[in-house]
Request: fold
Amino acid sequence: MQKSIPLLHSLRFRLIASVVTIEIIMLSILVWNNISIIHTTHTDRLRDTASSILQQIANTSGRHMVAVDYATLEEYLSNTLNYNELAYIVITDRDDRTVISLGDAPANNIKIDTHPKQVKDGMFDVSEDITVADQFMGRVWMGFSLSIMHDAIHKSRNRGITIALIEIILTIIVTVFIGLGLTRRLALLSSAAAQVEAGNYSVSIPTEKNDEISQTATAFNRMVSEVDNQTQQLKKAEAKSSKLLNENRQLIHTSLEVQEQERKHLARELHDEMGQCLTAIQADAELIRDSSHGNSRIQTSAEAIINVSSRVYDVVHSMMHRLRPSILDNLGLVEAIKEELDAFKNRNPDIQCECKCAANLNNLDERTSINLYRIMQECLTNISKHATATEVCIELNSTDNTILLRVSDNGSGFDVDTPAHGLGLIGMRERVSSLDGSLLLQTEPHKGLTISIHVPLHANSQIYK
Amino acid sequence: MGLMLISGYATSSHATATPSCKTHAPLIFGILPFISAEQLVDRFTPFAQYLHKYLQVPVRIETAPNFMAFAKRTREQQRYDILFTAPHLFPQASKAGYRLIAGVDSPGMRAIFVAPKKSNIHTLADLKGKRLASVQPMSLANLMIKKHLSNHGLKPDIDVTLVITPTHDASLLSSYLGVTDASSLMRPPYEAASQTLRDSMRIIAETETAPHIPISVSPRVSTNCKDEITALLLKMDTIAEGKAVLKHNRFAGFKHADVKDYQRVRDHLLK
Reply:
């Protein structure tokens, strides 16, 4: 199931918002720049025009000022005043008296401006000396109204803003359409990816257009198909492997059982056949010794036979014990553990051993007993070989339907992540697995090892309350 | 010794300047518009500055749009404190109260007839039926050439078409450029023209002599001021600075003048 995407995180929204924002910023800069250029152009144009007209009038007026021909000069200036932006012309003579005043001239104190940008009263006032042969003949004053220029600037600005707005609106529309088209197909991709994530490899995205998204969709379809094939093959391999593993495990379990049965059978044979024979040999040897009537050679030979047979018996007994401790079958698991632990103590007198075994667990079924016993044996063997421990504790108890065997030591422990811990641990796992139980290792380097085994209580087992 | 005395006069005149003319400040120096306003100002500014320096009063050059206006302003308004007008116009100014103080020290002025060398005009008689450039109708040159044509049996504007131009230079250029067949103008402007231009023209006739420019002052100028100006002008060619000014104006100097001389010219030309 696809999660809904927040608006601000939506690619569609961000795409449209980004394009529109950039467009607005760029157009604003463009319009601002254009307005600035228009303003500068108009003001410069007015300045140049004013300068040109002013210079022309100053040059032309000279001869009239010398000739005191104000009528002709006024007629000429009247024609000049027809220029739209020109608001007034004033001519003053050498004594600064006004001799000609045309248009809406200010009553007094004309403040000269250097540039239309500096004008504050709406009138660009300029002035120039009238000279003839470098002799001062008077002064011309002119005022240019900025209203026409401002109107032109306003019109240009409004036109620019209108064009910019139209472009922004068109951009928004186009961007929205393109954005919707793009993101709709991206949404298809996203949806398909979600379906693949959910395990549906039959999904396919249309790729009718020849663009980047279609190429991505094609690649996606190929990828999904490949993933589907690989997954199918993987599942098959996994099933096969699982089957092999189960068979292998079953084989191991069977092998272990057969091994135990064979050991048991071998132990019984040794006990029944070899034991009887050795007992008979020993009895006959004792009879020969006792019947030798002082024949030292016979007595010595008989004693030798007795000793040899006794040693053979011990060896056979030891082999029988290793193959199948009779105490396990006769007295049960708890007693077998205690006996094994005693033997371990004897072999490792520096290790302090403790047994916390519930006494009511002697009547467990044979399969459980022998496997737990073998696991316990393996644990002690490992402790003896590798742990360099000083304390060992074996616990055996039960809960409602579970038997717990825990063997712990305070030895060197090991790093569980380090691979290859030998075959002993694998054998233990297989034995636990054959009992449908679980095995838990708790260890760290130099912090000892605790092996906890939980196995279900078998129906054939009996626990005395 | 003489130079020292003159120099001493000028210096003392400057140093102990009497306030004779100060009451008239600024003094209006009216000059007949015989050349363009620009040329006029350029030519007479040193003169005005010279007067300003020694009279210690501002001297302002003025002219008029044309001879008629200049004569009218002179006659009716006595507008100009110092008047620099044509010889034949002075009698009218005199009637208006202007007092003659000096005249340009010169043998006299002549007008000339010139035609392009490439033309077939060699004598006055050749002008018959031709276009002759001239200056303003009231100008001395205009009157003199009309008189001269008449004296030689050619009726102006009948036998010879007069084409009026604003200045002497314009008159000369009109035939040089082919606008007219010949030109008439005063000799000094012709001699001031470029050598190239003069080399391409030929002088076909010359009028009789007329007295040079008279200098006068208006009735409102005080006697002391008038005398001061007169003295300054008459001694002008004795001072280095004055000489430089005179040279700039192409004048030799100033001398005493007689009103009768100008009246005689007027009578002769307008007869």
Notes: Confidence is low (pLDDT under 50) at residues 1-18 of chain B. The CA atoms of residues 107 and 211 of chain B lie 7 Å apart. Chain B is about 40% helix and 20% strand.
